Structure formats: structure tokens, C-alpha cells
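Input.
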Amino acid sequence: MRPGTATGRFATLSPMSDVEPAALAAFAAELARDAGREIRARVPATRHIETKASAVDLVTDTDRRVDALISKRIAAAFPHHARLTEESGATATPDASVCWVVDPLDGTVNFAHGVPHFAVSIAAVCGFRPGDPLAGRPGTDLLAGVVYDPMRDELFEATVDGPTRCNGEEITTSNCPSPNEALVATGFPYDRRERADEYLEDWRRLLPRCRDLRRAGAAALDLAYVAAGRFDAYFERGLHPWDIAAGVLLVRRAGGVATDLGGRDLFLDAREVLTAPRSLHSSIRALLSSA
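Output.
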């Protein structure tokens, strides 16, 4: 399917496929690959960079271009679905059965500086209404999720009723038994300058008790790497629905646990996340709670 068009096998879909996880995942995978090709083609180009809420909250012309591409394709294939994307916000439709939650370019700071670690994140969520209270909704509301790394050509995908796969091969979280053996990933929210001491306290508690910490700069890929067993755990504060929607499903369907930092089952309003295999989750949570 050509980027920016509504042609192809997903141009017209039956009502049943509007909420069928496998069909949603296949559509998201194809769309993510097309969006990734657009991003990859623009890597050598001069990037137009702007700031949003702060000097560390960036947006590029590529973010906006890819956001528009994805939004147009979703609207063409699923005109009755809602959308929530990082760059264009919420687009609601009456009685929408599904909302697409999209980060067109997760890891914008990496992209802006030429660091080849960023991704496209697309999730289809049942029962999600942008702006409504969502606490306590079950994780099964996440129908399909895709995270695509265009620089490594790795496509992570999952559905609510299937396993997590990377480029077609089933993957699972690690079975790491303790923090001492764990490679833990995290990130710093955009208010890091105002709350640096608070966030560094997490590092102070974890660093002596874990094998090592990583701060890679792309939440969607951090979650995908937990699903693949590359990272043993990942936590972060100050997140948004588009940061975690697809990745949380990847982790859960790979056998892991995804909660807020207090250990409560989370949905997209949590603004924080802790993911790890069941063998490790409670131990990491205890260390963070002590902070």
C-alpha cells in the first residue's frame, strides 16, 4: 500500500473486521511499516525541529508528516473509529467501537539528534474514549498493538488473543529471578529539570541492586524489548497513552506484568508504568516503592 493512500486490501473492511483483533493487527503492521519507510527516508534530510511544552519536548516535521499519513489511512479504512495521536490529539466519532492510539515517532529526541533508536507505535483499543476516566479498565481492552523499529526493520506485534511476535517469531519476556541479575530500562519525563531529584532517587535505589540500568529514549521500544526478554524490566513516570498502549499489550501477551508503580493493574490513564516478568515484578516494585 502506498503511503498516504487508502488503496490496498484494507481500503474496505467488513463490520466484523472493525473489531477483529487479527485484522486490526494486520492493518496496523502494514501501516507501521509504511510509516517507518517514510521516517527512514527522512533520516538523512535536514530536520526542522521545534519545541512544545519545554526545551526537552521536541517535535519535528517528520513527526507531523507521519502523524498525518497514519491518521489519513486509519480514517479511510475505519471511518467510524476514533483516534488519539500525539501530534493531532483526539478525533472522536459517535459510538466508536475502537480507538486507535498512535505515536507516529516515539523517540523524537533521538531522531532529531541522529541517534538511530526510535519507533512507530500503533494500538487499537476497545472501549477507550479519549478524555474519559479510564482507571481500572481491564487490559483485554487492548485489542492489537504494533511497535515498528524502522532502522532495524523489527516489527513487534500482538493481539489480545494471540502471542507476541517479532518479525513473525514468537517472543517471551525473560525469566529473570532477581534484581541482581536484571537489566532495567527507564526514562525521564519532560519535567525532569523541575523534578530531577525525585527521578534520580529511583536510580539511586536501583543502581546498586540491579545488574545495570539503561535509558534509551524510546518508551515503545523499551516495552518491546521487555516483551522480547532483552530488557528484564522497564519503568517510567510522566507517560501518555500513545507512549504505552501498544507496548503494554506486547508485554502482557509475552507473559509479563504491566502495572502502575503502585502495583495496580493499569490502563492508559496511569501516566506511569512498570513492566517485568512475573518472577521479577514485585521485587522491582518494592525497590521503587522504597524510593
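The longest strand covers residues 98-106.
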